[in-house]
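Case study 2.
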Amino acid sequence: STNAPSTNAPSTNAPSTNAPSTNAPSTNPSARPATGRVLVVDDDQCARAAMSRCLRRAGMVVSVAGDGDAAVEWLESTEVDVIVSDVAMPNLDGLSLLQWVRERRPSLPVILTTGEPSVGTVMEAMEKRAFAFLPKPVAANEMLRRVADALSEHRRLQRQRELEEAAAAQREAEARRQALGRQFDRALQRLVIHYQ
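Prediction:
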C-alpha cells in the first residue's frame, strides 16, 4: 500500500505527509471530549479514511497517521484514549508501535487490524497486550463496539490510577503530619528540660 497524504490534512504546508490530522474543534490537543480521542494509524489511505469516517460519525475525535513513525511523533506530544493501527506498515509497523506504547503508556489500549492475519502475529499481539486484533475488512459495528470497549477500559484504569495516586498522596501527607508532630514533641521536651 502507498503512504499517501491524509485526505483530511488540515493544511497543504504540513511538515510531513504522514503527520496526523484531526477534526478536534479545540486548539488544545489535551482537551478530552466525552466520546473519546482515537488515533488511526494505517499506510493505506482508503482504509485510513474509511475508519476515520466511521469513528467520526459515532462522535469520536479522530487523528490519523500514515505509519508508526508518524504515530510516535504525534503521541510524544498529544494524549489519546485509543489507538487503532494496521499491523503491516513501512518503517515502524503496528507490532513495534504497540511495543512502544506499552513501554511508555501501559494503560493505553491499542486495537490492531490486518489484512493478512497469522497465528504468529496474533500471538505476538496478545503477548504485547493488544486490546483487540481484528482482521480486515472490519465491519463498522464491530469497530465501533471494540473502540467503545477500549474507551471504557481506558477510563476505568485512569480512574483507578487517580484513586491510587490520591490515596498515596493522603498517606504521604499523614506521614509528614506525624513526623512534624514528633519533631514538635522533641522540641517541647528539650525546652522543658532547659527551663527545669
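The helical segments are 45-57, 68-75, 94-104, 119-127, 140-195.
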